[in-house]
Write a structure and sequence with these properties.
This protein is an alpha/beta fold and about 425 residues long. It folds into two domains: about 210 residues, Periplasmic binding protein-like II (D-Maltodextrin-Binding Protein, domain 2); about 200 residues, D-Maltodextrin-Binding Protein, domain 2. The protein is about 45% helix and about 15% strand. It has 18 helices and 18 strands. A six-stranded mixed beta sheet has the order 2-1-3-16-6-17. A four-stranded mixed beta sheet has the order 8-14-7-13. A two-stranded antiparallel ribbon has the order 4-5. Helix 2 links the parallel strand 1 and strand 2. The two termini are about 25 Å apart.
């Protein structure tokens, strides 16, 4: 955390110096807004690679909100970060169609479903940069329990493997428990995502499909009752044994699986990863991409569209991305991140040919081109909404309290409280 804070401070300071230094030459220096600290290194690499276009990086925590408050500020030319595809492509971003016709990129370079997420109608406004997947980790000594021919694990497999791993005393006290959904809030939410539950915000109102929510509630309750006896048993077990980081939980041999994200797993040291095996969560032949997928676009009102295109075409190149990864590792730029901008690259070839060179554990584990399923578009406040509003009701549902109206009322209260603040 301290490294990230320091990097952000340095990035902001450097951006201020760069912008001040090039105020007399604004046509040549582009401004890139980002909420991802990795882009400072990428921009530095780009600037050193050529003399035609120079870029200054500005760190912004909420990119879309910042666009609504540009008065008195230098407008950005390029934006790169999470939660950009929030239904505002036409309002904020220029068309990127020329990047395919004039800059040598091809749509087949990208994961098709992720590329579609940056479109509005037939126009490409945003390009995917990186993504992460839900990931299940197990102790490497337990991998024989699991299907060895697959890099994926489904709901049904999780339940089957977990039940076979479970062990109880004569007094029905669990000494081993494979996995319980309520152990991880992100996985509870993933149950909704996998079952196509979507949330829409309209005029400060949270809307969703109640029958689908009820279906997910019943699914979670059935899982708990048939695999792990009761929600109390799951909580008691977690209290006794699951108080360590996800990778250490499975090394205790008390639980079979721990759920995490691909970036958290692949940010571990090589020694730590060597002790575990891992599987991408899959449902109906696809793996839902986590909602903070990083995307990049050109600001609609910039006067430097052609120069911004140069950066994007450079960035979306296998050799460029290999140089980005190599630079971070060779210079020991340890920011506790994985891959490109903290995730798998949106470029299929980078994942298949480059990442396994630097991350040996990914050999034969790279997600298939058809596997990633793009997330629904959400605003930058979604992580807070998910944590404070969605998750508590999911946890209550596992205990049998199936309140489907609570999401909406809690969101209204949250909105009103934030307005008062």
């Amino acid at each position: 955390m301290r490294k990230h804070i320091c990097l952000k401070a340095v990035l902001i300071a450097l951006a201020a110096m760069l912008i001040a230094g090039c105020s007399k030459n604004n046509d040549k220096t582009l401004i890139l807004w980002t909420d991802n600290v990795e882009f400072a290194s990428y921009v530095e690499l780009f600037n050193a690679s050529q003399d035609e276009v120079k870029i200054a990086t500005v760190y912004k925590t909420e990119l879309v909100d910042a666009l609504d408050n540009l008065k008195g500020m230098r407008k950005p030319d390029i934006l790169a970060g999470s939660y950009l595809a929030c239904g505002m492509q036409k309002k904020y971003f220029a068309s990127l169609d020329k990047v395919f016709s004039d800059e040598g990129l091809h749509e087949e370079y990208f994961y098709s479903d992720l590329l579609k997420a940056g479109k509005s109608g037939k126009t490409q406004y945003l390009l995917p940069v990186s993504f992460n997947l839900g990931t299940f980790v197990c102790d490497i000594s337990n991998k024989e329990i699991i299907d060895q021919d697959s890099t994926l694990v489904t709901f049904d497999q999780l339940k089957t493997y977990s039940k076979s791993f479970n062990s109880q005393t004569k007094d029905n006290i669990y000494t081993k428990m494979g996995f319980a959904p309520q152990w991880n809030s992100d996985f509870l939410y993933m149950v909704l995502v996998a079952n196509n539950v979507t949330f829409n915000i309209e005029k400060d109102t949270l809307k969703y499909n109640i029958p689908l929510i009820e279906k997910c509630y019943d699914f979670l309750i059935e899982w708990t009752n048939t695999i792990n006896t009761s929600s109390n048993d799951e909580r008691d077990f977690a209290f006794k044994y699951l108080y360590t980081p996800f990778n250490k939980q499975v090394l205790q041999q008390k639980s079979l699986f721990a759920y995490t994200s691909s970036n958290k797993l692949l940010s571990l040291s090589e020694d730590q990863i060597d002790k575990v095996d891992f599987y991408w969560f899959c449902h109906e032949n696809q793996s839902p991409v986590l909602e903070d997928m990083v995307m990049m676009g050109i600001y609609k009102n910039t006067n430097n569209k052609s120069k911004a295109m140069k950066f994007i075409s450079w960035f979306m190149n296998e050799k460029s991305q290999e140089a980005m990864i190599d630079r971070r590792i060779s210079m020991n730029l340890d920011t506790n991140t994985f891959g490109i901008a903290g995730g798998f690259s949106s470029l299929i070839d980078v994942n298949e040919h480059v990442l396994p060179v630097y991350y040996k554990c990914l050999l034969a584990k790279i997600p298939a081109s058809t596997l990633p399923k793009a997330p629904q578009s959400y605003p930058s406040t979604w992580p807070v909404i998910k944590k404070e509003i969605i998750t508590p009701y999911l946890r209550n549902a596992v205990n049998g309290n199936k309140d489907t109206q609570g999401f909406a009322s809690s969101y209204t209260d949250w909105i009103n409280q934030n307005k008062e603040d």
